[in-house]
Amino acid sequence: MEDITINKIYITLMILAITLTGCSATVDQEEEVIDFSQFPYETYLKNDNPVVTITVEDYGDMKLQLFPDLAKNTVDNFIKYIYQGSYEGSTFHRIIEDFMIQGGIVSNPNCQIQGEFSSNGIANDLSHQRGVISMARTSIKNSATSQFFIVHNDSVFLDGSYAGFGGLISGFDILDQLAGVSTNSSDGPLDDVVITSISIDLKGYEAGQVSCAS
After folding, report:
1. 94 phi and psi, to 5 degrees?
2. In 10 A of CB 120, how many CB atoms?
């Protein structure tokens, strides 16, 4: 008798679970609520910041918020490349574990932009901590075009010299996997790490015209 009773209870619970699952379909489609307090750059995170999704072939998605209040021209420049579709099929071509992953080489880059960081005369106090996205450049301060990097582990020695403009809000496991791939002596991955797409939800933000460096 006990087995029969347990089976009846189990069947009842299964029916209830199926019913609840059906009722929760709308909830599942709602945007995930993220606790901003877990991030070292929580001060800059806002619900109305643009959200970028970087999809990496065979790995998955990384989501970032962009911080136009800190580096508006840099953000607008990044958004322009996204809308041009320039990043699709590009790669993370330089990877150094415990430092950063770098990508964004495009065939026809737009103009060079002014580096939005303090040593270039522009206030930007975003520290290069784990998860921060920043612009790559040459030794010339106003040389950034399309290339960017995402900090794997805290690299605060970059502060004041590179234009941080956003931070990861999900996909840290993907970041860790990418940072751990095998590389050659030039820090290039042995197997291509391909960016399938980069998409953006502007959250109402209106990107302006990109200002080129003089």
Report:
1. -140, 120
2. 16
DSSP-assigned letter for residue 160: T
What are the Cα distances from residue 142, in Å, to 86, 122, 194, 208? 21, 12, 27, 19
Q: 85-116 in b/e burial notation, b at 16+ Cβ within 10 A?
A: ebbeebbbbbbeeebbbbbbbbeeeeebbbbb
CA distance 46 to 92: 27
Flag residues of the chain having pLDDT under 70: 1-32
Q: What is the pTM of this model?
A: 0.84
H-helix or E-strand spanning residue 101 = strand 100-103
CB atoms within 10 A of CB 118: 13
Q: The domain 36-201: what is its CATH number?
A: 2.40.100.10
Please provide the DSSP assignment of 37-99 as one string.
GGSTTGGG--TTS-EEEEEETTTEEEEEEE-HHHHHHHHHHHHHHHHHTTTTT-BEEEEETTT
